[in-house]
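If you are new to this repository, start here. Below is one unmodified record pulled from the training split, so you can see the exact layout before writing a loader.
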Amino acid sequence: MRIRSTALTTVAALAIAGWMPAARAAEAPASAPGDIVAAAPSAFHPLPGQPTNTKAWKIHYRSTTADGAPNTVSGTVIVPQDGRTGPRPLVTYAVGTVGMGDSCAPSNNLPYGTAMEANLIQQLTLRGWAVVVTDYEGLGTPGVHTYTVGPSAGHAMLDAARAATRLPEAGLAADTPVGIMGYSQGGQAAGWAAELQGSYAPELKVKGTAAGGVPADLMKVAEFNNGSYGSGLIFMAAAGQDAAFPELKLDSYLNPAGKLLVNGLKEGCVAIDAIAGSFKRISDLTTRDPLAQPDWQARLGQSRLGRTAPAAPVYQYHALGDELIPYGVGRQLRSDWCAKGANVEFDTIWVGEHVSGVITHSLEAGNWLADRFAGRPARTNC
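And here is the target side for that same chain:
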């Protein structure tokens, strides 16, 4: 997705569509990454109607594509209403795979209690922390979601944190302590945010990153899932990469069955997409394998993590029995970061698999961030 219209035009269009009050349409155009384009009151419910003693706002904010062009991303800012008057930490949170259709976007589900990780997000707000949840590029905004394009996701997370501190209603200062958190697709986004923060958003006071089940090497993840339960993720990732880099021309590689599947994946959410795409091989749906082509390999390589040491400490966790993201991919990322001098604490989830990992280790990840916010030294096991 490449949004090149001015932010003012975007705001006006949102107002016309009825998404935001017309009074906000006169806001100044966003010019820098993290600037607010539009904001409107929202709500946060882990389950339908469940109270949370929070206030929430849906935001559109300025961010940056993988190629460095300006874009607009949506998200949700959530702030506890606990009477706290001093500074509070902020967690920029990226969800795992929800799908590629706009209806799957977290900001479209958090108000109604239908977002899959809302209970995990509530664990953070119950600690008194503010949370901003990015929708990622193209998920809930015009264009196709750039699923698995690491630099885009990292930008979206960092700019979400910037936007939260620039939203007056949220009451967060520019020097608010920030934590980065995500699992699975969100773990890739969190890893990229951690690697990019020192160069892209050095002003953010990032205290640490908690990232789990990280698909750090997309080529290895594709090889692992080809023909398996998770094979739909390969085609979702291909569609996401093609959305970011149209010169890849994914459609030219797909046979009729492949085109039908990919078109459906672009509009669906993960529960249906996972079933529709499972147990298929790349050769079943293509006339030739795009992943064997140098241009595809180069673009997927651009999303590989481990080449830059995160400036702040990292807590990384991965299930030994992960059936979607190979455990070895997670261990290699740990080794790569450690070799670059990063402060990494790696935790193996000995019992469980991919989906259970985000649940069983949510408390440990939260406690680790709490220690970073409290100024306690991080422990490395490199």
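Two things worth knowing about this chain: The beta strands are 36-42, 54-64, 70-80, 90-94, 130-134, 177-183, 205-212, 314-319, 344-349. The CA atoms of residues 291 and 298 lie 10 Å apart.
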